[in-house]
Design goal:
InterPro entries: PIG-H, PIGH-H_dom. This is Phosphatidylinositol N-acetylglucosaminyltransferase subunit H conserved domain-containing protein. Pathway: Glycolipid biosynthesis; glycosylphosphatidylinositol-anchor biosynthesis. Pfam families: PIG-H. One of its GO terms (cellular component) is glycosylphosphatidylinositol-N-acetylglucosaminyltransferase (GPI-GnT) complex. By secondary structure, the chain is α+β, with helices and mostly antiparallel strands. Helix content is 40%, strand content 28%. The protein is built from six helices and ten strands. The protein has a five-stranded antiparallel β-sheet, with helices on one face. A five-stranded antiparallel β-sheet has the order 8-7-6-10-9, covered by helices on one side. A hairpin with a 2-residue loop joins strand 1 and strand 2.
C-alpha cells in the first residue's frame, strides 16, 4: 500500500489532447495536464477551490491596503464601519503592530500560491498558407503565455524524434526551421507520449501539406517519422 501511494505521488500528471478545427484551414492541438472534471462532485470541487482562491486573494490585498493606511496615518474607519465589533479593532491593532518585513513576504508567498497555475498547457496552432504558432502557458495567471510564430515558407521539416532522458526514452515533436541552427521543440515542457505526438504530427501534415497534394512521408535512418 505504501509503495502504491509513493508511485501515485511521484507519477507524472496525466496529459490530455484537445483538438480544435474551427475551419478546414485552421487546426489547434493543445496538450494539458489540467484535470478534466467528469462528475458533478469534481466540478463543484473546482468551483469551491476557485472561490477560496478569490477570497484568500481578496483578504491578502485588504491586509496590505490596511497596513498601508495605518503606516501613513490614514483612517481605517471604513473597515470598522463595515465589519464592526471588537474583533475588527483587535485585528487592525495586530496588523498595525506587525512590521512590513513580516507582512510583505507573507503576502507575496500567499499571492503566489493563489495566482499559481496548477497545470501546464502547451499548444500548436496551424494556419494553412501562413504558418504555425507554438504556445506555452506561464507559471502564474498574471503572466501571458510564451508564443512563437513560424511562417510556412520557413518550415523545412516536421519530425518525431527520440532521445534519452536519464534512463528513459522520450519522444518529441520538432520543427526544423530554415536558416536556424537550433530546432524548435513542440510541447517542450510536457513532452507528451508518442501516441499524442503521432496524432498531432498527422494532423499538422494534413493541414500544412497533404491538402495541397505535396505532402509525403519518409523514414529517417533512426526510425523517426519525417514530413517533406
Amino acid at each position: 500500500m505504501v509503495l502504491a501511494l509513493l508511485a501515485r505521488l511521484t507519477a507524472p500528471p496525466s496529459q490530455t489532447l484537445l483538438t480544435l478545427a474551427p475551419t478546414p484551414s485552421t487546426v489547434s492541438f493543445t496538450v494539458s495536464t489540467r484535470p478534466v472534471p467528469a462528475t458533478v462532485a469534481a466540478k463543484l470541487r473546482n468551483y469551491v477551490i476557485l472561490l477560496l482562491r478569490l477570497v484568500i486573494g481578496t483578504l491578502v490585498l485588504a491586509t496590505l491596503w490596511t497596513k498601508w493606511r495605518i503606516t501613513h496615518g490614514q483612517s481605517t474607519d471604513i473597515l470598522l464601519w463595515t465589519l464592526g465589533g471588537p474583533q475588527t479593532a483587535a485585528l487592525l491593532k495586530a496588523i498595525g503592530a506587525l512590521g512590513w518585513n513580516y507582512i510583505a513576504p507573507g503576502a507575496v508567498a500567499v499571492l503566489f500560491v493563489v495566482l499559481r497555475r496548477g497545470y501546464t498547457e502547451e499548444s500548436l496552432t496551424l494556419l494553412r498558407g501562413l504558418g504555425v504558432q507554438t504556445s506555452s502557458s506561464a507559471a502564474t495567471f498574471l503572466k501571458s503565455p510564451s508564443r512563437r510564430f513560424i511562417p510556412t515558407s520557413d518550415i523545412q521539416d516536421l519530425l518525431i524524434h527520440e532521445a534519452f532522458r536519464g534512463f528513459e526514452v522520450r519522444f518529441y515533436l520538432l520543427i526544423v526551421v530554415k536558416g536556424e541552427k537550433d530546432i524548435v521543440v513542440v510541447f517542450p515542457g510536457l513532452l507528451p507520449r508518442r501516441a499524442i505526438l503521432e496524432e498531432v504530427w498527422r494532423g499538422a501534415r494534413k493541414c500544412l501539406w497533404e491538402s495541397e497534394g505535396v505532402g509525403r512521408t519518409k523514414e529517417t535512418e533512426d526510425g523517426s517519422a519525417a514530413v517533406k
